[in-house]
Every structure is written in structure tokens, then in C-alpha cells.
Amino acid sequence: MIWRNYKLGNTISKAPEPVTLWKTERCIIEISSDTLAVPIKLDDEEKGYVLHGHGKLLLDAIVETGEGAIGKSIEKELDEPFLMLGDTKEMQEHFTESSKEDFAAMSYENQQEFLDKAEDLCSRFFREREHNHQSFDGDHGFIFAFPNEAEKLDILVAKNSKLVYKAEDVVFVSNKDKVVLKSQGEVVCKNNGKSVVIQKDKSVIIRKTMF
To answer: What does pTM read for this prediction?
Structure first.
């Protein structure tokens, strides 16, 4: 199946050891050993993976303001297939050939069953991006898409110190000293020691902080 020239590869690998996919001061994404991986290709060049194993996403979405700490740490178990787009050169070194036992360990009867799930995930992701007229030309860092309980996709985009996380109940944007958090009806903006909080009743609080 092809999504605007993107397609799945034919070879499924596994991670023989745990792998850290992304790590900054605010975020870490890890996968366990024996995680299955099928490459996503653009013009026969690997541009990402669909992964299925037992992983974890940890995100510090707390903003320190003059009114105290707003937000919370997000911890998400990655037990369903998820998508990763970005430079895979370093990742390729962490994968080895998979076997029938590896598919059985993830409750798949065979390789094709995993590929079907991977195709379904890619179709949802790229269809939604095309609907919103989004493209992936150029260097976007890393893009992750995680299925959630509402059968939609939580999206995380990370490049150097920049991070954007969008889920059903929270939007979090961080770039060095600049932070924006939208959660539970409130919007918090922080930049160089000054914070602005827009509360549920639309009132605005502006504070200088020591953080």
C-alpha cells in the first residue's frame, strides 16, 4: 500500500535489546527487547518504522509559574503498534532478523498479521495528514504517532530542543525557555521568566517567575 510515495518494507526485524528512540530533558521514548519493526520507505529509502513491543513514553509537561506548577508528567505505556518517522541510520544498527517465535510473542499468528496492522496504522496517519494538507518534505526531526483509547492518534514531533505533543486532552509545546501548555481548559505560556495563564473563566494572570 502506498501513501503519497510512502510504503512499508517487506522485511520485519526485531530489537534484541531495549532501545531509547528519543531522549531530552523533558522527554524519553523507549522500546523493550523483542520489539518488532517494519520499515516505512520513501522511494526505497528508509524513513521510519512501525514498531510493536512493550515500550514507554515519559513526558514532563509541567510548567512552573508564579501561581505554582501547572500541568503534569505524562506516562504512556506503548503496548500497541506505533509509528516513527525520521533518520533511521542509527536505528538500523539496533535491529536483527525476526522469527516466527517473535510474532507469536506479540500474539500474531504470522508476519502478514503484523503487516496488516502496520498498514492500518500508516493509512490512518497519512490520511489524516493529507486531509490537513501536511507534508514531510525536508528535515522535520522525528515524528511519532501513538494510538490512544479514543481510537485516534497522539502525535509527538521532536527536533533538537523543540518538542510538540498533541493528545486528546493536552497540547504541549517546548523550545528551551519557551513553553506553551493547553490542558483542562487552561492555557499557560512561559518565556524567559514571564508566565501568562489564561484560566477557564477567561481571566488572565501575568507573573514573573524565578524559574
So the answer is: 0.89
Burial class (CB in 10 A: 0-12, 13-18, 19+), 49: buried
Long-range contacts made by residues 66-73, C-beta under 8 angstroms, separation at least 24?
66/195, 66/205, 66/207, 66/208, 66/209, 67/195, 67/197, 67/205, 67/207, 70/181, 70/183, 70/186, 70/188, 70/197, 71/170, 71/172, 71/181, 71/183, 71/188
106: left (phi over 0), alpha (psi -120 to 50) or beta: alpha
Domain ranges (residues) in the chain: 2-173
Query: What does the pLDDT read at residue 132?
Result: 45
The reported pLDDT for the residue numbered 18 is 97
